[in-house]
Specification:
Belongs to the ABC transporter superfamily. One of its GO terms (cellular component) is ATP-binding cassette (ABC) transporter complex, substrate-binding subunit-containing. This is ABC transporter ATP-binding protein. 24% of the residues lie in helices and 32% in strands. It has helices at residues 42-50, 72-75, 92-97, 109-122, 138-150, 168-185, 196-202, 220-225, 230-233; strands at residues 4-13, 16-26, 31-35, 57-62, 65-66, 77-80, 156-160, 189-192, 205-210, 213-218, 242-245, 258-261, 266-281, 286-292, 295-301, 312-317, 321-323. The chain is globular. It folds into two domains: 4-228, Rossmann fold (3-Layer(aba) Sandwich); 242-323, Nucleic acid-binding proteins (OB fold (Dihydrolipoamide Acetyltransferase, E2P), Beta Barrel). The strands form four sheets. The chain has a six-stranded mixed beta sheet with strand order 6-7-8-3-9-10, with helices on both faces. The chain has a four-stranded antiparallel beta sheet with strand order 2-1-4-5, with helices on one face. With 331 residues, the protein is α+β, with helices and mostly antiparallel strands. It has nine helices and 17 strands. The protein starts with a strand and ends in an 8-residue tail after the last strand. It binds adenosine-5'-triphosphate. The site of adenosine-5'-triphosphate (ATP) has 11 residues, from strand 2 and helix 1.
Length: 331
């Protein structure tokens, strides 16, 4: 596996600047998750590294070697797309073997057989190896797509929401399995997801993109606890961080325009009276929707709470984050 470095990389589609002067290192063995809303440039970043797109400016290095003039095959990256992309006329076994038989890798047949067995086991598809790709369910096809990357030992795995089309149980199982495989292989991974749990549990580092720019890079915990802006604070955490006018509870720094309160950073029992507007019981947690001076707030409460809409709850902030008028963090 390898270090992958993007250095001042920019790329436009026509007049749309998709990636804007992006500098980022994916270190050997790191699991980097890219976060950002739709259109932020996540997929384009993966396509630039894989060689499916060429940067207009900047350099991309794999293990110190500039790869911008190399073909995707020469770069030796493995990409998994959100939508499976299998060869429909081939069996699962042939699909998995395909990348290993490339003229560049030329893997011996006994090793191909061993790798296919291993990967099929991990992905729970050994009984499907002789099926045609078209004879699989959507979830099975996506597992084969992931398997096609995992049979290889590329310089980096690039995965674009690989689990998003799977059902909840399979997604949870494969999340744990992918993380285990990555850690045990010491694989370098760049992974796009909108899933909060995947980002928090799989990533060693999170990169937050905003309109093609990297606005923060750090451990999931840093991004969650110490965001540089309101935009970054809104990318991690479910329910999302509450953003309210800075003065609602008093005591805000003078420059502050907005107070950011994560659901778990709202203490109940003392402070300003708020009105319960909705109680959402999710089983393991109960979300409390509150109204305070005309603002909606979402917080968490005891799963067995007796609170009902119309009740009054006194609340006060604990560990608030403050942001200025431009959304930059000031405290
Ligand atoms: N083939 C294309 N032609 C023209 N514009 C494109 C093309 N692909 C992407 N774009 C534009 O480039 C920008 C970045 O797109 P990109 O797909 O990288 O975003 P993303 O963060 O991956 O979004 P999503 O979460 O929806 O996948 C967007 O404004 C998008 O509309």
């Amino acid at each position: 596996m390898s270090d992958v470095l993007l250095e001042n990389v920019s790329m436009s589609y026509g007049s749309t600047l998709a990636v804007d002067n992006l500098t980022m290192t994916v270190s050997d063995g790191a699991f980097v998750v890219l976060l950002g809303p739709t259109g932020a440039g996540k997929t384009t970043t993966l396509r630039l590294i894989s060689g499916l797109e060429r940067p207009d400016a900047g350099d991309i290095r794999i293990d110190g070697r500039s790869v911008v003039n190399e073909t995707p095959a020469q770069r030796d990256v493995a990409m998994v797309f959100q939508q499976y992309s299998l060869y429909p006329h081939m069996t699962v076994r042939e699909n998995l073997a395909f990348p290993l038989r490339s003229p560049i890798l030329k893997t011996p047949e006994d090793e191909i057989a061993r790798k296919i067995r291993e990967v099929a086991e991990v992905l729970s598809i050994p009984h499907k190896l002789d099926n045609k790709a078209t004879e699989l369910s959507g979830g099975e096809m996506q597992r084969v797509s992931i398997g096609r990357a995992l049979v290889r030992d590329p310089s980096i795995y690039l995965m674009d929401e690989p689990l998003s089309s799977l059902d909840a149980k399979l997604r949870a199982d494969l999340r744990v399995e992918l993380k285990r495989i990555q850690a045990s292989l010491g694989a370098t991974m760049l992974y796009v997801t909108h899933d909060q749990i995947e980002a928090m549990t799989m990533a060693t580092h999170v990169g937050v993109l905003d309109e093609g720019r990297l606005v923060q890079f750090g451990s999931p915990r840093e991004i969650y606890e110490d965001p540089v802006s309101l935009y970054v604070a809104g990318r991690l955490g479910l329910p999302r961080i509450n953003a309210l006018p800075a003065g609602v509870f008093g005591g805000a720094p003078t420059e502050a325009k907005t107070i950011g309160l994560r659901p778990e950073h709202i203490a109940h029992g003392e402070g300003k009276p708020s009105t319960v507007s909705r109680v959402e019981r999710l089983g393991d947690q109960t979300r409390l929707h509150l109204q305070l001076d005309g603002h909606d707030i979402v917080t968490l409460t005891d799963p067995h709470t007796d609170l009902e809409p119309g009740d009054t709850v006194a609340i006060q902030p604990r560990n608030a984050l403050y942001f200025d008028a431009a959304g930059a963090r000031i405290a």
